Amino acid sequence: MFRPLIVFIGLRYTRARRRTRFISFITFTSVLGIALGVTALITVLSVMNGFEAELRERILGMTSHATITGSEGQLSDWSNLEPSLREEPRVKGWAPYIEGQAMVNFERRVSGVMLRGILTDYEPRVSEVARRLVEGRLVDLKPGEFGIILGAELANYLGVTVGDKITVITPQVTATPAGILPRLKRFTVVGLFQVGMYEYDRNLALIDLADAGRLFMMENAVSGLRLKLDDVFYAQRVARDLGPKLPGPYLITDWTQAHSNFFRAIQTEKRVMFIILLLIVAVAAFNIVSTLVMVVTDKRADIAILRTQGMTPLDVMGIFIVLGTVIGAIGTVLGGIGGVLLALNVETIVPAIERLFGVHFLSADVYYISELPSKLLWSDVIQITGMAFLLSLLATLYPAWQASRIKPAEELRYE
């Protein structure tokens, strides 16, 4: 079907003569539309990939990749699990923790928090909290001194700074001659952290593991072990394989279970955004239909002459399929190059635009992620360019079929 003559004529029709400049302009807009659509789609998906990776890093920087706990929500022999964990090559660190809900009070301000007891020697192995401290040090949490590290938003709400004393109230109660009273303990604020996720900065507080054990009446037990893996995407497999290796019945959960709804929502949003932007590419691609219809109308006499010289209807179809394919291919290639360059440099381009116009697209006062992160995936580039080219190819079929139906005798009757 695509003989050299067919390809030559199809390529020849891409160049305009003086009386067909308008058709050439329509062709140019079709190429530009496809290029802009592909560029936008690659860039937007790269930014969404960057946001997803950034959020995953921040969430998993404070939570664990996997967690081991007992059947009753407590672990009394966590040190006995260390030999088994050392034998698992994908487990890079572990740390015991005690976690429970509590209330913190400072003067007239009260807030509910998630109180987490940690060992300062172990915690840096599984979380990024030591790198997220804006005041104080993790080692300032010493057993028996009842120090506490608050999230920056929580501290701002309470109006406390390092050195202030706050009251921690737990749901556990103490029986006294005066009746049943809640357990209260005075803690000294020794540090503040800021992760960049409101969920943690507003609702999490850290204390020493031994202090948490006394506060929650878990002197000889912990809530569980938090694990850090070399690759978060192997969490499900490691959790499944690690169970039989542990010396006893334990419950192992991974981050995909704890945050499945959140990341599923992000994936759904990406799919919806892909479909919406692909419709823009589709509109640009189907501009090729109008371009080819105008070319067919302009070339009816030429087509009739070619038919009289022995060209078959399939040959005529091939000419216009070649023409439409060239238009789609040029737009797709230009859009792919533009999208890749923009996605790789969006973190430089956006700040430059902000400085030029004096605006802030993501104000640090409102958004925790104040910069546009970008993560280019070549699989996305291949998928987007492939879909754009396929849509362009499909758009050529109807005009090419119409051209093949032209009857030479009728067209040349009045020539």
List keywords for this structure.
single chain; 415 residues; alpha+beta; six-stranded mixed barrel; 15 helices; elongated
The poorly predicted ranges are none
What order do the SSEs take from the amino end to the carboxyl end, as H and E?
Answer: HHEHEEEEHEEHEHEHEHHHHHHHH
Distance between the termini: 29 Å
How many domains, in number, for the residues?
2
Strand content: 15-25%
Can you give the helix content as a percent range?
Answer: 40-55%
Characterize the main sheet: 6 strands, mixed, barrel
Structural class: alpha+beta
Task: Explain what you see.
With 415 residues, the chain is of the alpha+beta class. Helix content is 51%, strand content 19%. A 6-stranded mixed barrel has the order 2-3-8-5-7-6. A hairpin with a 2-residue loop joins β6 and β7 (179-193).
